[in-house]
UniProtKB/TrEMBL annotation:
Keyword Ribosomal protein carried by entry: no
Broad EC category: hydrolase
Protein's recorded name: Sucrose-phosphatase
GO MF annotations, alphabetized: magnesium ion binding; sucrose-phosphate phosphatase activity
Cross-referenced PANTHER family: SUCROSE-PHOSPHATASE 2-RELATED
Pathways per UniProt: Glycan biosynthesis; sucrose biosynthesis; sucrose from D-fructose 6-phosphate and UDP-alpha-D-glucose: step 2/2
Function: Catalyzes the final step of sucrose synthesis.
Known EC number: 3.1.3.24
Complex and partners: Homodimer.
Organism (species): Cicer arietinum
Name of the coding gene: LOC101495120
GO biological process: sucrose biosynthetic process
């Protein structure tokens, strides 16, 4: 990736539904834990890849429903689409590879002859993916018959059955595993092969990820029978694959620690975050995440309202520093902290969370960083966000806030006082 000047320290490649995202966790606690860990300890030198069976349409819907951070790379539609960055720029080289011995019209023609197949919605029918629902009892028979027919028609296809209901027909060279192999080869050619790669999944269409040579893998505790069966038949003696005891994103964090791939203590798991000692050589993202978590705990009244605590916060702000609120009003940073004291406990007992996304830090002098990130506040179903640009200076082993400028990310936030 262009934003990294050298090889990524770690690349995490994760499925979304029931792996990174726990649809049974109404508080999104495991996702918030992962977000805080990634932005504080990994965003600056590592790569996050989301590998999902969802189409771009359903992927974007999920991002609106869940407090997800932005990946560096998105593999969608069961490994048939690869895009880069926040703008989701497509990989044209991957598209050209998938065109070999593939004809979507022939696939549609032949599948209409199988009454057992129920087409999925139009958004899930992609250039290199034709998708259906099929009952588990019919899946094997249909798969075998279709494979023979499409081969006779001159196509090289792959049929993937997952989740006990989803049947996807793809070019033979497509799939989550092949997309990852393509990326790793591309990085190797560019001299930026990741130091370690961790793949994460829960269902049958994730099995290919675990087959890539050299990667670490985690099957989250809630992994489906089809993936556990694949593991038992193909990789039960592989010490690089872990069946986690934790669900979803918490299982991913567990695997990071199990394989010693880097820090595995999320800032959300530190009880006295306000008293946490600064780590030598900590990235600026660590300070950003910690301050936002302090703001959340303050407003939820989960830390003590004391003059000593407020004074410690003020001590980390430059006396002449300026905070520009997204509404356009500007304040001395210490004045801003005085405003913060007035909202202590205003979200107590409520579903209120703060998270940051896409923390990007640029060192502009020996002790100063320009940091930009998206900051989000979630209150029940309401979400308000702003893009924040701040200047941090490293004094001894702690950061001092020199300047903060926030602007709205969306119109709906303009009636809120966002901290």
């Amino acid at each position: 990736m262009d934003r990294l000047k050298s090889s990524p320290r770690l690349m995490i490649v994760s499925d979304l539904d029931h792996t990174m995202v726990d649809h049974h966790d109404t508080d999104n606690s495991s996702l918030f834990r992962f977000n805080a860990l990634w932005e504080s300890s990994y965003r600056h030198d590592s790569l996050l890849v989301f590998s999902t069976g969802r189409s771009p349409t359903l992927y974007k819907q999920l991002r609106k429903q869940k407090p997800m951070i932005t990946p560096d790379i998105t593999i969608m539609s069961v490994g048939t689409e690869i895009t880069y960055g926040k703008s989701m720029v497509p990989d044209d080289g991957w598209v050209q590879l998938l065109n070999h011995k593939w004809d979507k019209n022939i696939v549609i023609e032949e599948t209409t002859k199988f009454p057992e197949l129920t087409p999925q919605v139009e958004t899930e029918q992609r250039a290199h993916k034709v998708s259906f629902y099929v009952k588990k009892d019919n899946a094997q028979q249909v798969t075998e018959a279709l494979s023979k027919i499409l081969e006779q028609r001159g196509l090289d296809v792959k049929i993937i059955y997952s989740g006990g209901v989803d049947l996807d027909i793809l070019p033979k060279g497509a799939g989550k595993g092949q997309a990852l192999a393509y990326l790793l080869k591309k990085f190797e050619t560019e001299g930026k092969l990741p130091g370690n790669t961790l793949v994460c999944g829960d269902s049958g269409n994730d099995a290919e990820l675990f087959s890539i040579s050299g990667v670490y893998g985690v099957m989250v505790s809630n992994a489906q029978e089809e993936l556990l069966q694949w593991h038992a038949e193909n990789a039960k003696d592989n010490p690089k694959i872990l069946h986690a005891s934790e669900r979803c994103a918490s299982g991913i964090i567990q695997a990071i620690g199990h394989f010693n791939l880097g820090p595995s203590l999320s800032p959300r798991d530190v009880s006295d975050i306000g008293q946490e000692q600064n780590v030598e050589n900590e990235p600026p993202g660590h300070a950003i995440v910690n301050f936002c978590l302090l703001s959340e705990k303050w407003r939820r009244a989960e830390i003590e309202n004391s003059d000593v605590f407020v004074a410690s916060l003020k001590a980390t702000s430059h006396p002449s520093g300026v905070f520009i609120h997204p509404s356009g009003t500007d304040h001395n940073i210490k004045e801003y902290l005085n405003i913060m004291t007035k909202v202590y406990g205003d979200k107590q007992g409520k579903q209120f969370r703060i998270w940051v996304d896409n923390v990007l830090a640029t060192q502009i002098s020996s002790d100063t960083w320009l940091v930009q990130f998206d900051k989000w506040e979630l209150h029940g179903e309401e979400r308000h966000g702003c893009v924040v640009t701040t200047i941090l200076r490293k004094d001894s082993d702690s950061f001092t806030v020199m300047h903060v400028h926030a602007t709205w990310l969306e119109q709906s936030g303009q009636n809120e006082w966002i901290l």
